[in-house]
Amino acid sequence: MRIPSSTIVMTVVAAVPFGLAIRDTVLHHDRLGQLELDRKAAAAELVAEQQHAAAEEAEASARLARETAARDKARRERAHELLGGFAAPGPAFAPLQLGAPVPIENHNEAALTVDSHGNVIEMASAPVDDDEGCSTLADVAVHEWGEPAHDHVWLDLDAHRRAMITPDCEVVFAQFDEPIAWVRQLPLDAIGGSRAALAKRFATPDADPDAAWPMPGLDGDELTAMWPVYDVARPDKLVGLQISTTATRATAQHVIEALSARLGAKPAHGDDDSYHWKSVRVGLAGNKLLVVLGADEP
Asked: What is the mean pLDDT of the chain?
């Protein structure tokens, strides 16, 4: 049976919308599928980025921890190089020794003070140049030596040796004397005599003629400095001596007692915390101790 062409046309016309609808449905599902794939890819990329960032952060933290540990180890090693046995210099000060001459082959850059015989009475390291290093140095000193006698000063009473960590974080080792021995060295009879002759006893070899003459200190944080007083018109005649150092209050009182015993007289005690004998005066101010023999000015 022959199908009329109009029927075919109507069938095609009727089928077109259904075909378009099917196409749109298929394309819609394809777009949804692609969107889902894109979403999953973006999520996977975000997770990968987060994992990479976390790995980088963990590596940075680990690297920082390694660097911090290395710096701390280096600081502690440097502290142990500076600090030896109790209140004693460590290997960093070799070949220097307290109480001994400076070796001819000395390449150590420690700052030195020598006495009139050329023997080292004080040596100081260069400052530790960071706060953490200074803190480590103090921690190692307390761990190795115990708590300081006072103000970051350790005293070896048997060896008469003082160790100190300064506010600038220098490590200083020096000799010190007991009060009786310190007073025994004071040239109480030098006033009126020759400044040059006294300089031979106390001045450092080749020192500036106008510099103070150094001696071991007491239990404070300084050496003793002896300043000659003279008239420029008669420069070799000694008219006075100013002798200064630092000491704890108890040691300063022992100095007063030792001077009294040596002079054979008790002092007059002034209101300004000074002590006076006929030709000797001692002034105390905080931890500062000043002994004046003869005149305190030309």
From this structure: 88
